[in-house]
Amino acid sequence: MKVEFAPLNIPLARRLQTAAVLQWVLSFLLLAQVCIGIIVILIIYNCWFLYVPYMTWLYFDWSTPEQGGRRSKWVRSWTVWKYFKDYFPIHLIKTWDLDPSHNYIFGFHPHGVLVAGAFGNFCTNYSDFEELFPGFTAYLHVLPFWFRCPLFREYLMTSGSVSVSKKSVSHVLSKEEGGNISVIVLGGAEESLDAHPGKFTLFIRQRKGFVKIALTHGASLVPVFSFGENELFKQVNNPEGSWLRTVQEKLQKVMGFALPLFHARGIFQYNFGLMPYRKPIHTVVGRPIPVHQTLHPSPEQIEELHQTYMEELRKLFEAHKRKYGIPEHETLIFK
């Protein structure tokens, strides 16, 4: 195989974009482990004056990720996120006006490998979110596991990320004056194992918890589809039933998160590496589904709203797929 190297005369802006995405990928893959390692080293070398105050503070701060987190406008405005957004680039498209006196749940699809679209649009101040949805605050819900990692949890919360636990989602949707948006990647870790280019498989049929919470709080449901999300990386072939997929699914059940064996391009060559491909991401926000508050919804009410949500999600995909180069015969597969 002939290796295709990056040209030497790359503009500075593109170099900065590559550097921004590299640090983002590394932060996902290594930063949590590095932060845990720092705490372990402090304990081994008995630097109690550093780790004891932090661990004490951590004890009292443990529930913050379930109480709205601790976002930082300064961190969200780092210039590195501008270059991150422009690398792909990432676009946010609104199809319907939302009422800032209400709260909403954005169901984000698909998960992809590293959820670049959700992070770029809802965790930085360089997307068009504030312009398109004035008066709203978006909270990206992620696995609770990441908030159990000391030090890393502080960095993660600065982006506006919070836990995806029921308590956390309920906290966001409980704002009486409205204006809050819970962004939930509904397919979760399991869906990332099917994040192959050209595939549109969504794990949604058994995901009904978000519907119950929407009914309980009277929060409107909004389907969101991020075109291009699955095109950023390739994965080692892992069809259902294969030994690799079996191992991945067992690890996912034990650890709570999946381990897709992904690859794309490198920093100085385009053939292999962990850098995502430069593929545009278009995150399209669909039409809100009104939800009447029902404190104790029945299974029939949950099922009915769940079916309505899947129908609206499919309509959203069908209405916009041709704009973003998806063949007419391609359709969503719900699992």
Automatic annotation (TrEMBL):
GO cellular component: endoplasmic reticulum membrane
Pathway(s) where this gene product acts: Glycerolipid metabolism; triacylglycerol biosynthesis; Lipid metabolism
Subcellular location: Endoplasmic reticulum membrane
EC number: 2.3.1.-
Parts forming coiled coils: none
Transmembrane segments: 21-45
GO molecular function: 2-acylglycerol O-acyltransferase activity; diacylglycerol O-acyltransferase activity
InterPro entries given in the database record: DAGAT
Keyword Acyltransferase (UniProt): yes
Catalyzed reactions: a 2-acylglycerol + an acyl-CoA = a 2,3-diacyl-sn-glycerol + CoA; a 2-acylglycerol + an acyl-CoA = a 1,2-diacyl-sn-glycerol + CoA; a 1-acyl-sn-glycerol + an acyl-CoA = a 1,3-diacyl-sn-glycerol + CoA; a 1-acylglycerol + an acyl-CoA = a 1,2-diacylglycerol + CoA
Membrane topology (UniProt): Multi-pass membrane protein
One record GO biological process: diacylglycerol biosynthetic process
UniProt keyword Aminoacyl-tRNA synthetase present: no
Keywords per UniProt: Acyltransferase, Endoplasmic reticulum, Glycerol metabolism, Glycoprotein, Lipid biosynthesis, Lipid metabolism, Membrane, Transferase, Transmembrane, Transmembrane helix
Family designation: Belongs to the diacylglycerol acyltransferase family.
PANTHER family found in the cross-reference section: 2-ACYLGLYCEROL O-ACYLTRANSFERASE 1, DIACYLGLYCEROL O-ACYLTRANSFERASE
Name recorded for this polypeptide: Acyltransferase
